Amino acid sequence: MSPAHTSSSPAPDATVVPTGRRGAMTGLPCSVLLIVIGAAGVSGGVVVATGNQKGESGVAGFAGLAFMVALGVLGVFLFVGHWANRSNRILVDSTGLWIDSGKLQHVIPWQSLAGVALHWSRFGRSQKVYSLEMFPNGPVDRDDPALWTLVRDEEPPQPGLSRLRYRLPFPSAQQQQVVTAVHSQVPQLWLGESERPTGHIGRPDVRGHRERTRGRTP
Length: 218
Description:
Layout: E1 15-17, H1 19-49, H2 59-84, E2 89-92, E3 96-100, E4 105-109, E5 113-123, E6 127-136, E7 151-153, E8 164-170, H3 175-185, E9 190-195, H4 206-216
Parallel strand pairs: 5-9
Antiparallel strand pairs: 1-2, 2-3, 3-4, 5-6, 6-8, 7-8
């Protein structure tokens, strides 16, 4: 299928998958709960640590205080992340897969890919973590200003595919919507679904990115 829409923005009939909104719906309440627990724990911890409870003070009070502060900090960190990503969307049209942060849009054109696959791994006893794996058919700028956080360097799932690929995680509840949207546009690129080891999402090569971009600076 040849891309028919060549605009600098997604087609009007593009399939929209609001990944950030779903994450915010579950993540924000959990993060707020952690913040509240941390705040309540800090208040109680201060009482214990300063010896205002039964006239005693001890290591246990300070340890409890530190633990509750850590919970509160974690809650704040998660809240900021979910709030910042609440507008994130995936849009799929005949041109490619668009990544929309609410402020900026970036597209990975279908014509630049040799294959697309769905990978998943287990998280806990009953949960699954999903990602869309997009394998370029040419050179990849692993330090692309917009897409470098999606780049992963791993053994390809089959011969002929590049080691470097784009890995786009998305909520498990939207697995079927994403697969249907991609397959409807580029069935010839679809490589199927496969289970990967736990933690397959991995992390961007932050250190390598910094070193390489620093080396480019005149």
